[in-house]
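Look over this record before class:
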Amino acid sequence: QVQLGESGGGLVQTGGSLRLSCAASGRTVSSSAMGWFRQAPGKEREFVATISSGGRVTYYAASVKGRSAISRDNAKNTVYLQINSLKPEDTAVYYCAARQSAVGSGVESHYDYWGQGTQVTVSS
């Protein structure tokens, strides 16, 4: 079984940057594709970014493409999400997820394990 724990969220001004971390425990996720999703109050959870098991392939939602980067350090069993030029629309709880596949996906139902989330708030 895999447990995922996000960290790095907080309150940031518009235009600032954050790097979120997701540390996995229980077993290695080196064979698992990983994803980041986010959910704002009263809204559906939406895809942000995904990375293949080896880190060779990444894919981003249009809302963050060009100002974000997903990466992983399999030796640390950790995945990261860097977001620059933060906007108020980025305010949400950010979740990381792992799937039982090496291939990344932007589809929420493809993922098997989820973290508890970390709050990101971007002030106007």
Observations:
- The two ends are 40 Å apart (CA to CA).
- The chain has a mean pLDDT of 97.
- DSSP finds no helices and eleven strands in the chain.
- The first strand starts at residue 3 and ends at 7.
